[in-house]
Amino acid sequence: MSGEFTLSTPVAFFVYNRPEHTAKVFSRISDVQPRKLFIIADGPKEKNNDKRTTRARRIVNQVTWDCNVVRLYSDTNLGIKERFVTGLNRVFDTVDEAIILEDDTLPDPSFFRFCQVLLNRYRDDSRIMEITGRNQLGTWRADKQDYHFSYNGGIWGWATWSDCWEMYDPDMKLWEDRIVRDRLKDLFGDEWQYNHMHRVYEEAYNERDESWSYPWTFARQINSGLSVVPSRNLVSNIGFGPEATNTTQSSSPWSGIDTYSASFPLSAPPYTIVDGDYDQAFHKIRPGRWKEHPIVYPFWKLISSFAH
Question: Which InterPro entries match (predicted)?
Answer without folding.
Answer: Nucleotide-diphossugar_trans (IPR029044)
